[in-house]
Every structure is written in C-alpha cells, then in structure tokens.
Write a structure and sequence with these properties.
The protein is an all-beta fold. It has two domains: about 100 residues, Immunoglobulin-like, CATH 2.60.40; about 140 residues, no CATH class. Helix content is about 0%, strand content about 40%. The strands form four sheets. Strands 11, 13, 15, 16, 19, 20 and 21 form a seven-stranded mixed sheet that branches. A five-stranded antiparallel sheet has the order 1-2-7-6-3, with no helix packed on it. Strands 10, 12, 14, 17 and 18 form a five-stranded antiparallel sheet that branches. The N and C termini lie far apart (about 70 Å).
C-alpha cells in the first residue's frame, strides 16, 4: 500500500524568531521559523525577491488570516516573513498544504523581538556580522571555508545582520525589499560587544532582502578582544542572549 500524505502539524511553541530561534513572540516584518511535521512535501527555497506566498505544495502560511511570504519550506521547517500589516497581540498561525490545513497555533505579535543571524543558522556561535570596509565576516582569520573572514578591529565599523527590529519609517510591501530606498527602524537599538556599548551608526532594513535588518556600529575601545566575543542587541526592552559571537582584534594586544 502507498502511504497517505498527512496534514501539516505545527509543533508546540513552534513559531520562533529565525535569527536565534527564540520564542515569546515575533515582530511584524520579521523572519519567523515554523517548526513541526508534514509542513511540506519537499524542500524548496524561494528563487527571488519579492517572495511569493505559495512555495512547493505549501498553499499558505497565515498569521491572523494574512498570507506570509515564504523563504523556505521543508517537512520540518518553514521560514516565512511575518506580514507587516498585523496588529499587536495574539494571532493564529495556520499552515495549509495541498493535503490540508494544520490546527491553529496562537502566537503573540510584539513590537520588536530581535534575533542576530548566526553562520550556523541556529542562533549559536559565529554571528553574521561583517566588517563594513571589506564585507568580511568578523570571525577568526580564515576560519570559514565559504566566506572571507578576519577579526574586526577596535574602532572598526561592524554591520550586524539580524531580524525582528520592528516598525520602520517608510511603507514596505510584504515579501519585498526596499527598492534601494534607505528605510530606518523606528526603535533605536543598542549593541553590546563583550558587554560594552558600541556607538550606533545606523539601523535600517537590508535593501536587498525581505525581513532582514542591518545595524551598523563602531567597535568601542573598551571591547574585549578574542575569537569569541559576545554580540548582543537591545531593543524594546529585550536583550538577545550571549550565544552569538564575533572575533575582535585589539592592535595593542
């Protein structure tokens, strides 16, 4: 007998921030990960921006009835952009495939819920944070096979790639990039490097992606040096964990 396809199931607490897999709510415009079972019949990645609201056999992922643009679908995980046009408070998340619809999972929509992307894609270890001068990831020298990498120097300018920073100062369509426009966050984040506040330069939506943000800072003179210095964002009263790190070089060491 052929096995019958099964309807999708969202796991308990299965809607989290894609940057660090933190629960407790997701922000409008951010990238969220939905974990569960039977979420898609095959693994498919979106080919272009703007993102579509259907992908593979996933007909929709809705937040409060609003279809979410889809980055990636697989049997156990879907990455989607939380629609911008949601009010704050609990909403029902439902995954619908060609087989059927999942039971709804209530998820809080909050003003901001930051998450820094990590190279590991699981919110642990080396952060996706780049030297503004050359685009190299602020990691130990030559430690990443697929990317140029070197420690960020003290007083250097660092760009932190993240999601969940909340509202912005210009309208952006669901699933779209900014069209080259500079779009600033309304909340001003703080960035801690080894627990030391960095000087904020800007906090904007990434111009080439949907739901990603870039926060640029200058590495403070008091920051510790080393290959695994903690990197945190503080916004809307929420501080990310110390589980993502960068490499910092102090020329005086």
């Amino acid at each position: 007998m052929l096995a019958q396809a099964q309807t999708p199931v969202i796991g308990a607490g299965g809607v989290v921030n894609s940057g660090n897999y933190a629960g407790g709510g997701v922000a409008p415009g951010s990238i969220a990960s939905v974990f569960g079972a039977n979420l898609a019949s095959q693994t498919v990645t979106a080919a272009a921006i703007p993102l579509a609201t259907t992908l593979g056999n996933v007909e929709s992922v809705t937040f409060g009835g609003v279809p979410a643009p889809l980055y990636f679908v697989s049997a156990g995980q879907i990455n989607a952009q939380v629609p911008w046009n949601l009010g704050l408070g609990p909403v029902d998340v439902v995954v619908t495939t060609t087989v059927g619809a999942s039971a709804a999972l209530s998820v809080p929509i909050v003003p901001a819920a930051p998450g820094i992307f990590a190279v590991s894609a699981n919110g642990l270890g080396q952060a996706v944070a780049t030297d503004n001068s050359d685009g190299a990831i602020a990691a130990p020298q030559a430690s990443l096979a697929s990317f140029p990498a070197h420690p960020i120097p003290i007083d250097g300018y660092l760009v932190v790639w993240c999601t969940g920073l909340g509202a912005v100062d210009a309208p952006v369509a669901n699933g779209a990039d900014t069209g080259g426009q500079i779009v600033n966050t309304l909340f001003q984040p703080a960035v801690l490097i080894g627990g030391i506040p960095a000087t904020l330069v800007y906090s904007v939506l990434s111009p080439q992606f949907a739901g990603e943000y870039q926060v640029a800072v200058q590495v403070p003179p008091g920051a510790p040096s080393g290959s695994a210095v903690s990197l945190q964002i503080v916004i809307n009263g929420i501080t990310t964990a110390t589980t993502v790190t960068i490499a910092v070089a102090n020329p005086s060491d």
